[in-house]
Write a structure and sequence with these properties.
single chain; 252 residues; alpha/beta; D-Maltodextrin-Binding Protein, domain 2; five-stranded mixed beta sheet; cell membrane; tungsten; Molybdate-binding protein ModA; molybdate ion binding
């Protein structure tokens, strides 16, 4: 190779490297991770189908658990793009830890009910009946939103429950009832409805004094904040609200 050709080759290589260096880095993968309260699983799973249809190539991965457990994971460094809590208390914890980008948006409310075995063999008709001898009751642990709401009902009714177990999510409470490990469980109306004929729901008026509000927010460390915001917009918009209403949630 002549010196002229060698010089041209070097120049071309430098030009190519410079061009590559000046190109913008590729965008983050078209996927987001959503940390969501366990009670949102049926609704959010359906909302995901609509979201992915509206955003071809985009994917949504969920982590469903008790809201208090999700906050603990986030504060310990878990990667996520969106957080949807079953109460404002746990969202406030996330905000105070500097994890939330902007103001959370309240998108749904939920109310407690008593889930019992089909046909209600123990004859439970009220919250007071949960302390009758021979009734095994399971509830959410106090840090969990459904547990905090249960405590409010206990104070309002002056009834102190003696649960056989305290679970870390409302779905775990429901599973205890459907599997026969408990006679009754305090769950959300949406969970009891989703269980269908596996349980009988026993509403009680005092539940109106312990309504939980659900907020949602994009997280500061999101690797795809644009897509995360689109998901929040869908949940809080008309289409998402329709799905939530069909699942038994009410507007805040």
């Amino acid at each position: 190779m002549t010196r002229a050709r060698a010089g041209a080759a070097v120049l071309a290589a430098i030009t190519l490297v410079s061009a590559c260096a000046s190109e913008p880095s590729p965008p983050a993968g078209d996927s987001i991770v959503v940390f969501a309260a366990a009670s949102l699983k049926p609704a959010f799973t359906e909302i995901r189908e609509q979201f992915e249809a509206d955003n071809p190539g985009a994917k949504v991965e969920f982590s469903f658990a008790g809201s208090s457990d999700l906050v603990t994971q986030l504060t310990q460094g878990a990667d996520a793009d969106v957080f949807a809590s079953a109460d404002t208390r746990n969202m406030d914890k996330a905000a105070q830890a500097g994890l939330v980008d902007g103001d959370p948006v309240n998108f749904a409310t939920n109310t407690l009910t008593i889930a019992v075995a089909p046909g209600n063999p123990k004859g439970i008709k009220s919250f007071h009946d949960l302390v009758k001898p021979g009734v095994a009751v399971v509830v959410c642990a106090p840090p969990v939103p459904c547990g905090g709401a249960t405590e409010k009902v206990e104070k309002a009714t002056a009834v102190t429950l003696s649960p056989v177990s305290e679970e870390t999510s409302v779905t775990d409470v429901l599973n205890k009832v459907t599997s026969g490990q408990a006679d009754a469980g305090i769950v959300y109306v949406t969970d009891a409805a989703d269980a269908g004929d596996k349980v009988t729901s026993v509403p009680f008026p005092e539940a109106a004094q312990a309504v939980n509000t659900y907020p949602i927010a994009v997280l500061k460390d999101s690797q795809n904040s644009e897509l995360a915001n689109r998901f929040v917009d869908l949940v809080t918009g008309e289409a998402g609200q329709k799905v939530l209403a069909e699942e038994g949630f009410t507007k805040p």
